Amino acid sequence: MTAIRAVVFDVGRVLVQWELRALFEKLIEDQSELDWFLQNVVTPEWHFQHDAGRPLAEMVPELQVQFPAYAAHINAYATRFNETIPGPVAGSFEIVEDLARRDVPLFAITNFGAEFWAGFRPTQPVFTHFSDIVVSGEENLTKPDPAIYRLALDRFGLAEGEGLFVDDSLPNVEGARANGFAAHHFTDAPTLRAELEALKLL
């Protein structure tokens, strides 16, 4: 059995919080209207197009034509995206720091739009600990497509079984397990820390 020697993190909802509501609750006071907006206008499914590589210059005007009354809100999605990320997930940055101190190789695979990643990554010094990060929007591949895991193994220089992949999405975890990774379904930092200790990585 191959020994795990590296940890491969998801970003959203593992390392940092992500919630579209965090931005739009600043722009829409009425809770029923806010709920409707997030279910029908700027939805996670619509946002996922950018994760998959579609440029904002196509997505935003198209949606503004569909919902002209919310044109300014849709523009805010493009210009204020970092406000959908209110802060780190409790305890996760500390795990990264502790792994880095032990010289455990660190990587990430994230479903993240390329344009948003360019604006977000520089705000988070924690990413200096990562040797490489596969970003879906840069590769036009998203988890749980088997190809993104194969690409990651190749880029990271890992043999099958050498990387522990950590994600909050069960389909992404199952995809990783089927394509060369050991995997941990993330629920909270203490549970992850316990597994990393059991694996002698912490």
UniProtKB/TrEMBL annotation:
Pfam families given in the database record: Hydrolase
PANTHER family xref list: ALPHA-D-GLUCOSE 1-PHOSPHATE PHOSPHATASE, FLAVIN MONONUCLEOTIDE HYDROLASE 1, CHLOROPLATIC
InterPro entries found in the cross-reference section: HAD-like_sf, HAD-SF_hydro_IA, HAD_sf
Spans through the membrane: none
Top-rank taxon, per record: Bacteria
CDD domains per UniProt: HAD_sEH-N_like
Sections of the chain in a coiled coil: none
Name of the protein described by the UniProt record: HAD family phosphatase
Organism: Sphingorhabdus pulchriflava
